[in-house]
């Protein structure tokens, strides 16, 4: 009887010992199964993700809206130091830009006419949807933002997102009311690009939170710090000529085949508020 | 249970808020991981792991990364933290900070293993190190605050069995 009791207690202790490990293994297997399902079976936004976005993002939108109003109140009514000087400077700048705009409008119209004459595809976009950034990716390993427009507004996967300063990224997941945008600085982002001055070709990939890298630029190509980098238009996601950034540094390896070029995006991706989605 | 759900929702909202992004792009911390650490210190192993899995799943659904990645890393983190904190006084501030550091390391390692082994995706060492160090510092700084707030808001009802016999060493 005593042996039996000891045996049962030993079994119980063993069960208690192994139970957490068994639970852990089950959870790991379940997580891996989910990973496989997401990668192979349903790469688009799933019902689960859409539901989570629909729960969290409306709350996020309310919080962001309140914070923006408070910030706006502070900036518009309280923090008015040097507003007069800035106003004068901006007025002068507007006058200069007005003159430039007229010149560029003329050039653009002329180019449009010439393209039509030559039978090329038009460079204008039929629709640009304005969206607000309402959330960021919870993972510190990703550079992704969520905006408040989705498939109901005509958005779909893989369309370019820009601001007036240049390229921001592309849409990667689209829910009915929300869409997520992969920023240029994310390690998964890749944009076929050109150095505007010399037409040297390369691929802009995300490097860190503030920098991108222009890869596969021929060692004999002329690349200098300060050169402008624009989208080449290959791949049909990013329209040709969209401003990406400027060359921040050029490193030459003694035995390499390519330049190592660092690119500073022209858009301050840490301060995104409104963006334009270029629906083709 | 409602207070646990509210704590998770608040952590997710804070983590996905663009306001933090505008204050400083480096100010990004995995608050849900801190919640997992807290409950792993006070709850039973199974409950902590299941909670870690569910929090990770919520994290994944809001993230652009693969579904299941955070679920895996957070349940593993819950297991490691729970197992190693058996003979430690969980209320100790030093213990909470140390286990937070450990959790950041386990979470990062699990994530990297999944990315490299199962998705054949490599990350630059500089990116890994900078993200890890920044995560570690911010998590360690925030851990006492998060644990204090959770202590006030959520009373750990199901205290782990092994704590009843153990004597604190830290």
Task: Characterize the structure shown.
- The complex is a heterodimer of chains A (280) and B (170).
- With 280 residues, chain A is α+β, with helices and mostly antiparallel strands.
- Helix content of chain A is 39%, strand content 28%.
- A six-stranded antiparallel barrel of chain A has the order 1-2-5-4-3-12. Chain A has a six-stranded antiparallel barrel with strand order 6-7-8-11-10-9.
- The model of chain A has no long low-confidence stretch (mean pLDDT 82).
- Chain B has 170 residues and is mostly helical.
- Helix content of chain B is 72%, strand content 0%.
- Chain B has seven helices and no strands.
- Chain B has helices spanning 2-16, 18-23, 31-42, 45-62, 69-84, 93-119, 125-153.
- Chains A and B meet through helix 1, helix 2, strand 1 and strand 2 of A and helix 1, helix 2, helix 4, helix 5 and helix 6 of B.
Keywords:
heterodimer, A: 280 residues, alpha+beta, 6-stranded antiparallel barrel, 3 helices, 12 strands, 39% helix, 28% strand, B: mainly alpha, 7 helices, 72% helix, disordered C terminus
Query: Element order, helices and strands of chain A?
Result: HHHEEEEEEEEEEEE
Give the N-terminus to C-terminus distance of chain B in angstroms: 29 Å
Oligomeric description of these chains: heterodimer
What is the helix/strand order of chain B? Answer: HHHHHHH
Shape of chain A: extended
The biggest beta sheet of chain A reads: 6 strands, antiparallel, barrel
Relative helix content of chain A: 25-40%
Walk across the major sheet of chain A and give the strand order: 1-2-5-4-3-12
Largest interface: A-B, 53 and 57 residues
How far from one another are the termini of chain A?
A: 81 Å
> What is the radius of gyration of chain B computed over CA atoms, rounded to a whole number of angstroms?
16 Å
Nutshell version of this structure?
Chain A is of the alpha+beta class and 280 residues long. Chain A has helices at 2-41, 47-78, 83-118, and strands spanning 127-136, 144-147, 160-163, 166-174, 179-183, 190-195, 201-206, 212-218, 228-231, 243-252, 258-265, 274-279.
């Amino acid at each position: 009887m005593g042996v039996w009791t000891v045996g049962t207690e030993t079994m119980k202790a063993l069960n208690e010992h192994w139970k957490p490990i068994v639970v852990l293994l089950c959870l790991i297997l379940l997580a891996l199964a989910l990973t496989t399902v997401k990668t192979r079976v349903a790469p688009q936004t799933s019902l689960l993700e859409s539901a989570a976005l629909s729960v969290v993002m409306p709350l996020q939108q309310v919080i962001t809206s309140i914070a923006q109003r408070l910030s706006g109140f502070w900036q518009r009514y309280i923090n008015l130091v040097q507003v007069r000087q800035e106003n004068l400077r901006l007025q002068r700048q507007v006058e200069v830009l007005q003159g430039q705009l007229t010149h560029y409008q003329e050039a653009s119209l002329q180019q449009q006419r010439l393209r039509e004459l030559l039978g090329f595809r038009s460079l204008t976009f039929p629709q640009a949807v304005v969206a607000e950034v309402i959330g960021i990716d919870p993972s510190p390993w990703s550079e992704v933002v969520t905006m408040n427009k989705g498939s109901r507004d005509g958005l779909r996967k893989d369309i370019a997102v820009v601001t007036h300063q240049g390229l921001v990224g592309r849409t990667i997941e689209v829910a009915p009311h929300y869409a997520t945008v992969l920023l240029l600085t994310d390690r998964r982002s890749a944009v076929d690009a050109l150095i505007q001055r010399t037409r040297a070709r390369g691929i802009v990939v995300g490097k860190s939170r503030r920098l991108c890298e222009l890869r596969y630029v021929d060692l004999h190509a002329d690349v200098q710090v300060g050169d402008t980098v624009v989208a080449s238009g290959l791949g049909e996601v990013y329209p040709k000529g969209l401003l990406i950034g400027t060359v921040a540094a050029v490193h030459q390896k003694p035995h390499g085949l390519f330049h190592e070029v660092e690119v500073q995006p022209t858009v301050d991706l840490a301060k995104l508020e409104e963006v334009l989605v270029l629906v083709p | 249970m409602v207070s646990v759900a509210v704590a998770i929702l608040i952590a997710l909202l804070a983590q996905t808020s663009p306001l933090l992004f505008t204050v400083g792009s480096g100010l990004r911390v995995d608050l849900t991981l801190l919640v997992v650490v807290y409950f792993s210190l006070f709850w039973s192993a199974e409950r902590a792991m299941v909670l870690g899995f569910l929090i990770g799943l919520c994290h994944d659904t809001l993230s652009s990364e693969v579904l299941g990645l955070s679920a895996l890393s957070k349940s593993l983190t819950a297991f490691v933290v729970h197992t190693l904190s058996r003979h430690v006084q969980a209320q100790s501030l030093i213990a909470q900070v140390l286990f937070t550091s450990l959790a950041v390391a386990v979470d990062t390692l699990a994530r990297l293993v999944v990315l490299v082994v199962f998705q054949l995706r490599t990350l630059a060492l500089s990116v890994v190190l900078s993200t890890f160090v920044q995560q570690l510092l911010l998590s360690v700084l925030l851990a006492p605050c998060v644990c204090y707030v959770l202590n006030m808001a959520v009373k750990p009802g199901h205290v782990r069995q092994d704590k009843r016999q153990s004597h604190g060493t830290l």
